[in-house]
């Protein structure tokens, strides 16, 4: 997800998106362990999205 898309979301929406991405990564790693995962790039993008969300949450919480 792009940074501009994330900036337009509220704090609650960012937290929900973070939870969604973390759940995706957890299921991805289970699939990878079982040998069923084919799309490695999806995990990379999801990790980057998590980092972007955490950065925005940190900025929003410390600006208040």
Count the DSSP helices: 3
The biggest beta sheet, please?
A: none
Which whole number gives the mean pLDDT?
91
**Binned strand content:** under 5%
**Helical fraction:** over 70%
SSE sequence, one letter per element = HHH
Count of distinct strands: 0
Gap from first CA to last CA: 25 Å
What's the Cα radius of gyration?
Answer: 13 Å
Shape: elongated
Question: What can you tell me about this protein's structure?
Answer:
The chain is mainly α and 64 residues long. The protein contains three helices and no strands. Helix 2 packs antiparallel against helix 3 (40-63). The longest helix has 24 residues, at 11-34.
What attributes does this structure have?
single chain, mainly alpha, 83% helix, 64 residues
Report a brief summary of the structure.
This protein is mainly α.
Map the helices and strands.
Layout: H1 3-7, H2 11-34, H3 40-63
Helix pairs in contact: 2-3
């Amino acid at each position: 997800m792009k940074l501009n898309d994330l900036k337009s979301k509220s704090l609650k929406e960012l937290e929900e998106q973070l939870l969604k991405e973390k759940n995706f990564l957890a299921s991805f790693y289970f699939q990878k362990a079982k040998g069923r995962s084919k799309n490695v790039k999806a995990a990379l993008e999801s990790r980057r999205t998590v980092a972007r969300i955490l950065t925005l949450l940190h900025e929003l919480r410390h600006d208040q």
